[in-house]
Amino acid sequence: MAKDKSGYIIAAAFIGPGTVTTASLAGANFGFHLVWALLFSIFATIVLQDMAARLGVASGQGLASAMKNMAYKPWLKNAFIVLIVSAIGIGNAAYESGNLTGAAIGLDAFISIGIGPWASILGTIAIVLLWSGSYKWIETVLVYLVFIMAGVFLVTLLVAKPDIAVMFSQLLSPRLDADAITTVLALIGTTIVPYNLFLHASLVAKSSRGQNKQDAVVACRNQSAKAISMGGLITLIVMATAMMAFFNQAATMDASNMGEQLKPVLGDKAQWFFALGLFAAGLTSAITAPLAAAYAVTGALGLSDDMQSKSFKAVWFIIIVVGVSVAALGFKPLPAILFAQATNALLLPIIAIFLLVVMNKSTALGEFRNTWKSNLAGFVVVGTVIGLGLYKLIGVFS
């Protein structure tokens, strides 16, 4: 199990352009007043991904298959299938459009041909990589680029000499109001990614076969906690640099000046480096989102989850095409990315509730079923996200 890198793949999957953009907007518009939402998101991600990983190790199945197999009545099984296909399909289509839009913004800073054409080119690249099966090597390179970007953000933050007292004061003064709720949901949606639950369970189920289950669970739990915490730290650093550059300043952040936060270190090259980071983060996530959807949908429909099977390829192909189409329609890029993250936060409770049910009811789990501590943590996560979603809906209709 030591060679399994599923935890880092999950962390890389949520450090997409949505994370970079949402964290930058949160820091620029609200300073550190919304860090509470990020801290909650990291806690929630560790809790839910641990459940998904235990399910994969113990049952040898993905989350979609486990949910479907748990239903003993035909109508309930069909309801699970419809839920999984529709929820993950909608969620991943939204995510894919955000991923491609973010990466397209990055490339358009180098060669200006428009968001739509770049999204089409990137979608084609993702299709070619997934079709060939060689995406893992490319993904590794892109993940390194994302972490290099995070390093530059950290150096920038240190050079800018942040006012720790102000940051701490804002951290202790959390905000949750009509102006902040969309950004709060976006921070949650860009970190606790519903499709990652399906992706993690499937990856671990495949990589842990033939190994001691207890050892596999322990190793996976430790790796996931470290990787997800590292991803959260990157998000916090991006938020902090944006706060230093834009919060309570005359300038307003938009798609054209997001890289300004890196100027203390990179000078005139800041925008270009930021663009390269968005491209790397976007293409990495543009590969993992359709991959996760393929695992979820094929598992729900009882089809082959072999990467070379026609059904598996058909699912990720549709997700990419829909993502490209939405990205090419000309929506304003930053609201589109923010909307994709908020949409996922609203979809999350549905998936999380059924994950909790599976982790308590599935006979295949044995000793790896949820303990009362896991259930308590899960209920806190689900209850909080549902409460925030209802607050958002009430605000929309009031």
UniProtKB/TrEMBL annotation:
Cell location: Membrane
Keywords: Membrane, Symport, Transmembrane, Transmembrane helix, Transport
Chloroplast among keywords: no
Molecular-function annotations in GO: cadmium ion transmembrane transporter activity; manganese ion transmembrane transporter activity; symporter activity
One GO term describing the cellular component: plasma membrane
Predominant cellular place of this UniProt entry's protein: membrane
Pfam families membership: Nramp (PF01566)
Entry membrane topology: Multi-pass membrane protein
Transmembrane residue ranges: 7-28, 34-57, 78-95, 107-129, 141-160, 180-199, 231-252, 272-302, 314-331, 337-356, 376-394
GO biological process: iron ion transmembrane transport
Name by which UniProt lists this protein: Manganese transporter
Source species: Alteromonas mediterranea (strain DSM 17117 / CIP 110805 / LMG 28347 / Deep ecotype)
Organism phylogeny: Bacteria, Pseudomonadati, Pseudomonadota, Gammaproteobacteria, Alteromonadales
